[in-house]
Amino acid sequence: MAQKGILAGLPWWVKWIAIPVLVCVVFGSLIVSVLGVVIDVLFKALLLVALIGGLVFVVKKFTGSSSKGGDW
What we know:
Elements: H1 12-66
């Protein structure tokens, strides 16, 4: 008969409580570091989009009112 897996004979609390706790203890700092980098990159991307949008808005506002014609 084929085995179902390494965790087949263990109690439920080992599968659903003990193993996830051990993973969090061992890899917790790595997980937090990766999440921090992802959040930092997302924040910087949103900031870049907002700055570019603001720049385009300001340039269009001032160049649209000061120039009467002659688009390039």
